[in-house]
Amino acid sequence: MADTTSRGRLAGKVSIITGAARGIGRATCVAFAREGSAVVGVDLAARASGTTDFAQPDQDELEETGRLVKQAGGRWLSIRLDQRDLPALREAAQRVKREFGGIDVLFANAGIQAFKPLLEMEDADWHDQIDINLTGTANAIRAVAPHIVERGGGRIIVTSSTQGQHGTKYGSAYSASKWGIIGLMKSAALELGAHKITVNAVIPGLIDTPLTRHESRYAQAIEVSGKQPTGDEKKDEKTAAEARAKATPLGVPWIEPEDVAPVVVFLASDEARMVSGAAYDVTGGDSAHNVA
Ligand code: NAP
């Protein structure tokens, strides 16, 4: 395949992307490769928590991302780890430095989502989402940022959610983790600006990935659209799609991960050098309902 690393908006960059096995992470890996970045795809690629009830990716899915990155002309390395494991992330960052010469960009994107009413919550229902989504994102920053400092500057982008902008019925752990990521992003932007590192968040709306496209997620999607699902509707994809399409200004039920990736590319690019501490929504227009 043609090597695109000498051209594009991310030409010559080395980027680490977590949650790379599929969804937003995979789409961003491919978009980064098209723009000339070498891509290190990090993922556990195994079930991260017993609290989730949708299918999890395996090593093959991570390697499929690698195939797509190489097809787009990018250099690729995959690393399997659990982002709760800070020493593993530090070791991964060292390896990337050894093999690629340094690190310019971190897209800390991996996460899980599960729903449980507060009154029924077990410890794992709270801790797994806080530990993976919030602490895991902080771990990625703590492990990788020193290398970006050493490089003389770069970019960090994290993935929050619209649920980091409002409460979520039966989704308090996820919502809290995603609000927390906004606080983490803004604090990191304050601290790392002196090192010429920008730190921003992407706020995806409802994206068409395995995290949302499964039966137990539909009731929540319908409710957020302002309709009370009844009986069978709670697990019905068509009802969820119709309710979502009606409620979203741009008329789409789900947004494709490929529509999130270009925003991450922009935030990773030199063009975004004066953008830091900010949150960028990709919500199909849902953001128009926000007060601020
Ligand atoms: P996805 O397809 O499930 O991708 C998430 C990836 O993260 C999976 O490959 C998953 O693999 C990996 N991951 C989970 N826990 C991990 C851990 N402890 N260590 C390493 N990797 C781990 O979901 P997605 O929709 O692309 O989600 C990406 C990010 O966007 C998440 O932070 C999510 O919260 C956020 N987001 C998604 C939506 C949406 O509507 N889809 C909306 C707003 C925000 P394993 O589970 O095998 O580890």
TrEMBL record:
Keyword Oxidoreductase: yes
Pfam families named among the record's database cross-references: adh_short (PF00106), adh_short_C2 (PF13561)
Region (Disordered): 224-243
Similarity comment: family membership: Belongs to the short-chain dehydrogenases/reductases (SDR) family.
Keyword Glycosyltransferase (UniProt): no
Source taxonomy: Bacteria, Pseudomonadati, Pseudomonadota, Alphaproteobacteria, Acetobacterales
Compositional bias annotation for Basic and acidic residues: 230-243
CDD domains, per the entry: SDR_c (cd05233)
UniProt keyword terms in alphabetical order: Oxidoreductase
Name of the featured protein: Short-chain dehydrogenase
GO function term, MF aspect, one: oxidoreductase activity, acting on the CH-OH group of donors, NAD or NADP as acceptor
Gene3D superfamilies: NAD(P)-binding Rossmann-like Domain
